[in-house]
Write a structure and sequence with these properties.
Blueprint: H1 5-11, E1 17-18, H2 21-30, E2 34-39, H3 51-62, E3 66-71, H4 93-107, E4 119-122, H5 124-127, H6 132-138, H7 145-148, H8 152-155, H9 164-167, H10 169-184, E5 186-192, H11 196-210, E6 215-219, E7 232-233, E8 236-237, H12 247-255, H13 262-269, H14 274-281, H15 288-304, H16 306-320, H17 333-336, E9 348-351, H18 353-358, E10 360-361, H19 362-369, H20 375-383, E11 387-389, E12 392-393, E13 400-401, E14 410-415, E15 419-425
Parallel strand pairs: 2-3, 2-5, 3-4, 5-6, 9-15
Antiparallel strand pairs: 1-6, 7-8, 10-13, 11-12, 11-14, 14-15
């Protein structure tokens, strides 16, 4: 490939900050580089929030660069304060090990770890055996406390409290970069925008200790149209593990994104050509629903494989119908080739939009829709885990549904496995 992967990442929306944009672009165009991204094993599964760095790694590997995935078995013992308002819950060593093994299996779905193609390392291998006094003398002396406190990850925590344990995190992450540079010739660290201070600290440490130029690059924080951190649903986090978020629920998460997010998400979370991404992103309702189907299918295919994506697509179409755009629009060949059985229409009712603007209790909504005969019937449905709004489970009797839940001026309610009602608001 003659294209520079830096241009690909920038066009698709991956680049937020860079230590030296011209230098990074030049080195990525001149040679195949070893780069790393760290992931702390704080849960048994990765989440959709981890997908931005994972997708970036996939692009980099496709262009011949060498990914190093760092599983933070050592740094997880300390806890990263970045993006947190309070100290992370401390994890036991056995839980960290269990999480690491599960995440290793997940990474193999995205990154080719064949011979001389990529590495996966555990930073506990070098961090847990560090001598504290030597660390203070050899590494700590290169860090200015005044400068460390200017990092956003620390500044945001000073009012609520920052433990000395967490304060060490920047030093440990910088040491990771130093270790990977000396032992593996790694010259680029990538991470989320909340990691900027830690990444720059590593670049500076390597310059001071090795007189070597290395680089850092961060990805933007992805938020939805309401400004909320991307990757959350009404039911909680969207996981990459099919046992925690099944492929159909995963598909529906993408299918239900806001119209204004479609182009951005197609650029970040699919490999579709950017010309097609821009065409799809410019569509207006109701045609934009076809673009959402393509986004959902392509994203599900990447994380769960094409057979699972096909089944999720067919299930969604059989329940909700196929998007019916007015006129010819761009389509993905992967969707276009799928044959879908005739769909069953979902019965609908109409309610006042002003009523939704004031907020409708979840119990009252299911009664008004006709899916439940009484408030007690609705509460029983909710307590048994059978109530869904836009395929998101409703578990709280006191939950209020507002306009934030609207998709194309309607809601899809489900009671149990097969009873649906579409509620239109005008």
């Amino acid at each position: 490939m003659n294209e520079n992967v830096f241009d690909i990442l920038k066009e698709r929306g991956f680049i937020y900050q860079c230590t030296d944009e011209d230098a990074v672009k030049e080195v990525l165009g001149r040679q195949k580089v070893k780069f790393y991204i760290g992931f702390d094993p704080t849960a048994i599964s990765l989440q959709i929030g981890n997908l931005v760095p994972i997708m970036a790694m996939m692009h980099m590997q496709r262009y011949g660069h060498f990914p190093i995935v760092i599983i933070g078995g050592g740094t997880a013992l300390v806890g990263d304060p970045s993006g947190k308002t309070e100290m992370r819950q401390m994890l036991m060593l056995e839980q960290i090990k269990e999480n690491m093994e599960a995440q290793k299996r997940q990474f193999a779905k995205y990154i080719d770890f064949g011979e001389n193609k990529a590495l996966m390392l555990n930073n506990a291998n070098w961090l847990v055996q560090l001598n504290y006094i030597e660390l203070l003398r050899d590494i700590g002396r290169h860090f200015s406390v005044n400068r460390m406190l200017t990092a956003e990850s620390y500044k945001s925590r000073l009012e609520t409290g920052l433990s000395f344990l967490e304060f060490n995190y920047m030093i440990l992450q910088a040491y990771d970069f130093y270790k990977l540079t000396t032992d593996y010739e790694c010259i680029l660290q990538m991470g989320g925008q909340d990691q900027w201070g830690n990444i720059v600290a590593g670049v500076d440490l390597i310059r001071r200790m090795l007189s070597k130029e290395v680089y850092g690059l961060t990805f933007p924080l992805i938020v939805n149209a309401q400004g909320q951190k991307f990757g959350k649903s009404v039911a909680g986090a969207i996981w990459l593990d099919a046992l925690k978020t099944n492929p159909f629920e995963y598909y529906q998460f993408w299918r239900n994104v806001d119209d204004v997010e479609v182009e951005k998400l197609l650029g970040l979370f699919t490999f579709l050509p950017m010309d097609e991404v821009r065409q799809l992103g410019q569509l207006k309702a109701p045609e934009i629903n076809r673009a959402k189907e393509i986004l959902a299918f392509e994203a599900t295919k990447i994380s769960h494989g094409e057979p699972a994506a096909v089944e999720a697509f067919k299930s969604a179409v059989s329940q909700f119908g196929l998007a019916d755009p007015k006129g010819e629009i761009p389509t993905s060949s992967s969707i276009k080739a799928i044959q879908v059985a005739p769909t069953q229409a979902i019965p609908g009712i109409e309610l006042s939009l002003s009523e939704l603007e004031q907020g409708i209790g979840i119990v009252a909504l299911f009664v008004k829709s006709g899916l439940c005969h009484s408030n007690s019937d609705a509460r029983r449905l909710i307590s048994q885990g059978g109530a869904y709004v836009n395929e998101q489970p409703m578990t709280d009797f006191n939950m209020t549904i507002t306009v934030n839940y609207l998709k194309d001026n309607s809601l899809i309610l489900r009671a149990g496995k097969k009873r649906y009602k579409q509620v239109f608001f005008k």
